[in-house]
Amino acid sequence: MPSLDSFTAFVRATGSKVATNPEDIINDAAKNTYLIARMLKGRDANMSLQSGQNIIDRVQLSDSGTAQFFHPNDDLDIQNVDNLSSIELDWRFIADHYSYTEQEVTLNSGDPQTYYKNLLKSKRMATKTATLNKMEDQLWAAPSNAQMESSSGVQPYSFTALVTSDGLAPSGFTTIHGLNPSTNENWRNQTATYDPSAVADTDTGLVQAFDRMFHLVRFVAPRSMQEYFESDLLQKMTIATNLDGMLIYQRLTRDANDRLTPANNLGWVAGNVTYSGIPLEYVSTLNDALVNSGSALTSGEPWYWWLNLEYIFPIFHTEKYMVESDPMSHPKQPFSRVVWTQTYYNLFCRSRKRQGLITAA
Predict the structure, then answer these.
(1) pTM score above 0.70
(2) Which of 32, 140, 212, 266 has the most other CB atoms within 10 Å of its CB?
(3) How far is Cα 2 from Cα 24, in angstroms, rounded to an integer?
(4) Confidence of residue 154 (pLDDT cuts 50, 70, 90)
């Protein structure tokens, strides 16, 4: 059995008196931003929590084509058209764990003079943070047909696999969620480009690309037929970009004003940047993330993902979300414990047509 000094966590968690409460632990392992939380906010639990052998849905990518003009008393053609397409994706599984010894937990209690922090709480926090960080990183992972589309893969889908620079399937893919965008025009996301060397140009710059994308991803139902149409007012649309993308857009926003608003506040736009009411979200993961080409984003040439989070979101298994196992021990190490957690989930897209990507060209 190793000595207590070998337990680094024990040494760091037990010792002299500290200024703050033992339960008050600053989590600086967390990321600056979490888009996964944004996707779940305000969503019906029935959409985000499901069960079953895999994740299945039906989408209508074409109309029936049965409408016809006619003369009175003409014979009319009758067709029985199945115009629904099936989406199918497999569950993906993520596990994590934390471990501890009976001695370090026992000695990490009692007199606050020698009780730095709640050791078990810090271990559980570290595990949950690691799981969420892994999920967040996976949202922007490089597309992989073998790992994402194939049933034998282990990785959940990423935004870069579901929303591409040409609207089609990423390189190496034929289908996305089992559907081929090459043969299903309405299973393609929207695209636009801008000139990174002239971002303020009215014809080829970033604002023109935003204007174009806004109209491409906006869908309004006919007033008298709203029961049968998906009217999307973009309440859950967000525009995700990296730090370069935020700084460029903030600069354009300031330059478009003849004076600072509110008065003399140079940073007034830094935390509240929108386009037509749609928020721009700084995604810290995108500073280093790979994109569809498989290469890192070029500095000064950011991409902007227009993500309608009403139609693209993670689905978690109803019984397997951050589930902790009972503490387990080995017969030869009876005083050591390990606790495993597991989650079943995948990133699901109901409509690619309502997603968009603006790239530097």
Answers:
(1) yes
(2) 140
(3) 30
(4) very high
